Every structure is written in C-alpha cells, then in structure tokens.
Amino acid sequence: MARAATTSDAFNAVAEPRRRDILNYLAVQERSVSEIVDAMEIEQPSVSKHLRVLRNVGLVQARREGRQMLYRVNAEAIRPLYEWTKTFERMWQHQLVRVKGRAEEKMKAKQG
Questions:
Q1: Structural contact between residues 62 and 71, judged by C-beta atoms closer than 8 angstroms
Q2: Structural domains in the chain plus CATH codes
Q3: How far is CA 70 from CA 32, 33, 60, 82, in A?
Q4: What is the C-alpha to C-alpha distance for residues 44 and 68, in angstroms, rounded to an integer?
Q5: Which pLDDT value is given to residue 6?
Q6: CA distance 32 to 63
Q7: Is 75 exposed, middle or buried (0-12, 13-18, 19+ CB in 10 A)?
C-alpha cells in the first residue's frame, strides 16, 4: 500500500517532527515566519514549506499584518488528533498505576 502524501491530512502532516515542533511553538501564540525561523533554527524556505503543509491540511491559519504573515494553530483542526490519542489515555493511566504500585511495593520492602 502506498504511503499517503504528507499534505493529505493532519495525521500525515504531523508525522514530520519539524512540523510538530512548529505546532508546539505556535500553540503558545501567533508568530511570524521570521520568529519561527529564529526559534526553530531552520532555514526560512524550510519553515515556509512546513507552514504551507500545515496550512493546507488546516492545522494552522495565517493572516497578513502589513508585510508579515502571522500564523496560529487552528485548535478545531487539531481536535481529531487529540481525540485519536485520547483513545490511548486509558492504557497510559493503567501503566502509570502499575508503575506507582511497583514503586510503592519497593519502598515498603526497603522499609520493612
């Protein structure tokens, strides 16, 4: 089965680590391309390419302010990613409970 293009949907778009880094950076506040370039230490053409992919799948929105383009996360478009990962939350919680239980058993054994 052929791999889907990275521009086809949000899941494929965030498969690229740099795009996830950019989304994390934009999660705090709206940023210009030059701010992203400086913070990510990536060349401007690469940042623009990643932003274009993220924008095409709807994960970021852009607006023009004077000569700058400002980008921000589109929280509603990220919802499917969140909901999908949330399905695994029960498994993670179960694992954390087990780890906590084992740590408490070891502490009791040391004390007793």
A1: yes
A2: 10-111 (1.10.10.10)
A3: 4, 7, 10, 24
A4: 13
A5: 55
A6: 10
A7: exposed
Please tell me the total number of residues recorded for the chain in this structure: 112
- HEC letters along the chain: CCCCCCCCCHHHHCCCHHHHHHHHHHHHCCEEHHHHHHHHCCCHHHHHHHHHHHHHCCCEEEEEECCEEEEEECHHHHHHHHHHHHCCHHHHHHHHHHHHHHHHHHHHHHHC
The residue type at 76: E
* pTM, full prediction: 0.73
- For the segment 34-72, what is each residue's pLDDT rounded down to a tens digit? 999 999 999 999 999 999 999 999 999 999 999 999 999
